[in-house]
Specification:
It is a single chain. This protein has 182 residues and is α/β, with parallel strands linked by helices. The protein has a domain of 120 residues: Nucleic acid-binding proteins (OB fold (Dihydrolipoamide Acetyltransferase, E2P), Beta Barrel), CATH 2.40.50. It is built from 3 helices and 7 strands; from the N terminus they run H-E-H-H-E-E-E-E-E-E. Strand 3 and strand 4 form a beta hairpin. It is elongated and about 100 Å long. It starts with 9 loop residues before the first helix and ends in a 14-residue tail after the last strand.
Length: 182
C-alpha cells in the first residue's frame, strides 16, 4: 500500500485559481462585446423592416399607446404609414394646412377628459370644419411644433360618422412597443 503525502501551498493555489477565473471572465466579456458590436452593424434600421406599402391601422384600444411611443421615438417611426379616425381640432397657432386629429382621453373615473392626438398636415385641411369626424391615411414625418414632434402628412382624408368608441384611455403601463411596428 502506497501513501502519498502531498503538501499544498494554499496561497499559490488560491492565486492560480483567481487568475484562471479572471482570464475566463475576460474571454466571456470579449465574446459578448464582439457579438453586440457585430450584431448592431448587421441589423437594418427598424423602419426598414416594415414594408413601405403597408398601412398600419390604429384603433381606439391602442391609440394612446401608439401616440405615446411615436412621440417618444419619432425617428423610429418616420416613414410609417398609418390610418385612423378622430375629429378635427385646431388651436390658434396652427397653420391653415394643420390640425390635430384628436380623440378625448378619459383621465378620471367621473369621465373628465383631455384632447390628445397627432398633429396633421393636409393641403385641403381648411375644407373640414372643427369637430368634424374624419378618417385619415398618411405618413409619419418629423417636424417642429414647439420642439420636435411627429407630424402626419395626410394623403387621404374622408369625413366619417362618430364611432361608438369615441373615447380613448391612458396608455397601458404594460404596453411593450415594438420599435418601428405599430
Amino acid at each position: 500500500m502506497f501513501v502519498f503525502n502531498v503538501k499544498v501551498n494554499g496561497s499559490k493555489l488560491f492565486k492560480t485559481f483567481f487568475i484562471c477565473v479572471i482570464i475566463l471572465l475576460l474571454i466571456i466579456v470579449g465574446i459578448v462585446v464582439f457579438r453586440v458590436i457585430s450584431g448592431a452593424k448587421n441589423n437594418p434600421s427598424p423602419s426598414s423592416c416594415l414594408p413601405q406599402t403597408k398601412v398600419n391601422t390604429i384603433s381606439s384600444s391602442n391609440y394612446t399607446n401608439i401616440l405615446k411611443v411615436v412621440h417618444e421615438n419619432i425617428d423610429d417611426y418616420v416613414g410609417v404609414k398609418i390610418n385612423f379616425t378622430g375629429y378635427v381640432y385646431r388651436v390658434l397657432d396652427l397653420k391653415d394646412n394643420q390640425f390635430v386629429l384628436a380623440r378625448d382621453m378619459i383621465i378620471s373615473s367621473n369621465f373628465q377628459s383631455v384632447v390628445v392626438g397627432f398633429l396633421c398636415e393636409y393641403d385641403k385641411a381648411s375644407t373640414f370644419q372643427d369637430n368634424t369626424w374624419v378618417e385619415i391615411t398618411g405618413e409619419i414625418t418629423k417636424g417642429n411644433y414647439h420642439g420636435d414632434m411627429p407630424i402626419v402628412k395626410v394623403t387621404k382624408m374622408n369625413e366619417t360618422n362618430k364611432p361608438n368608441d369615441e373615447y380613448v384611455y391612458p396608455p397601458d403601463e404594460t404596453y411593450i412597443p415594438t420599435t418601428g411596428v405599430i
